[in-house]
What does this fold into?
Amino acid sequence: MHNSFLRLEHVSFSYYSMLGEFMALSDINFNVEKGMFVALVGPSGCGKSTILSLICGLLKPVGGSITFYSEDFHAPRVGYMLQHDHLLEWRDVYHNIMLGLEISKNKTPENLAFVDELLEKYKLSDTKNKKPSALSGGMRQRIALIRTLAIRPDLLLLDEPFSALDYQTRLRVSGDVRDIIKSEEKTSILVTHDISEAVSMADVVIVLTKSPCSVKDIIPMEFEKNGIQRSEIRKSKLFQEYFDRIWRQIQDENTEM
Ligand code: ADP
Ligand code: MG
It folds into this structure.
């Protein structure tokens, strides 16, 4: 486990309400290596967002442990990207991107230069002075990603970030977002109910059961190993095989009583 960045061991979690206890997670075990892109897929309501809330510390596990391994023992900085981009309409793109740095009082010359570098590198510089309302949904999500990267997170959590986009945009933006995350070498966890999105973006897909949620399968996506280039993934037989396997596992969850 030397390359381990994050480890969940026997994690369980319950919500409590007036109606009593609802066990959302029963026994979650998985490992995320540094620089790895992991996707969590599972039936709607199975506990995916709950797992992210536990990882970022918004919720505390009832049982089990969540461990971060870092070289210098600093608390990990976590960046979150959600379905809604939450860009502020009254600020232009540049000042939206600056928001996290402003709030954390980190507007250092290095960080400002880093933001400029990101905008330049990913060809977004000419959106700098625009208002979010002037941008397409796909462009807005790219900006939301840059805003998240501006705080230099150690870990990126993406909770269904493309589900509000139309199909064509979604394909393009998910590809771009993956390229950016990979080139910035960010460890990332994507939550999605879209199997093809998980298969085409992730290095490892973790299939979850319905609630109380546990891990059903952990599947490494071995496209590169099989000589399949990224641009060819969706057309490959292997893609179909992974898709069918995960589809069947999730169908079983929906039909089992
Ligand atoms: P997913 O993201 O996979 O759709 P969630 O993690 O949001 O699922 O929710 C998992 C389960 O926990 C669902 O059944 C949901 O209804 C329940 N749940 C989520 N949040 C709360 C809460 N604050 N109080 C009680 N139950 C909750
Ligand atoms: Mg959710």
The chain has a mean pLDDT of 93.
